[in-house]
Specification:
Blueprint lengths: L1 H10 L3 H13 L2 E3 H7 L5 H13 L3 E6 L6 E4 L5 E3 L12 E4 L2 H10 L2 H18 L9 H9 L1
Antiparallel strand pairs: 1-5, 2-3, 2-5, 3-4
């Protein structure tokens, strides 16, 4: 079955990459590098970036970069080269944004996780988000509050 194929590809990845992808799956269909770094503060940022880049190279994730000139997204390959874009002025110090290439990837990763691991990750994500933000209610932060509520 296709689910088994996804699971076999996931299991063939390095344990560190699998752990990062599990966090990504709990974060949601799309997420930022800074979100992953907040959750995995104990892991060097370069290692986290390499894990995400490997997942992009494996076509598990795609990287989206928002152009400053317009509202469309440009897709980047895992090695940092732009696959399609109209704006070559992207600044690499800006946050990086990723999403699962297909909902089936996220579902497969979540389905393979023990419920205790999911609960732990949800708690860790909520604590990391709370620590990063002071809970001052501002109407412009509705998206952040909904994300926190989800965990």
């Amino acid at each position: 079955t296709i689910e088994l194929s996804f699971l076999n590809r996931f299991d063939s990845l390095d344990i560190g990459v699998r752990r990062v992808l599990q966090t990504c799956a709990v974060l949601g269909m799309s997420f930022s590098l800074s979100d992953v770094i907040r959750v995995h503060g104990e892991i060097d940022e370069a290692i986290l970036e390499r894990s995400l880049d490997l997942a992009v190279d494996e076509l598990i994730l795609v990287e989206d970069v928002e152009d400053d000139d317009d509202d469309d997204l440009s897709v980047w390959s895992g090695n940092g080269s732009r696959m399609e874009s109209r704006n070559a002025s992207w600044d690499p110090v800006d946050d990086r944004f990723f999403q699962f290439s297909h909902a089936m990837w996220r579902k497969s990763v979540l389905d393979a996780m023990l419920s205790e691991v999911k609960v732990h990750l949800h708690r860790t994500i909520a604590e990391a988000l709370e620590k990063e933000q002071v809970l001052v209610m501002e109407s412009s932060d509705i998206g952040w509050l909904l994300t926190l509520f989800d965990h």
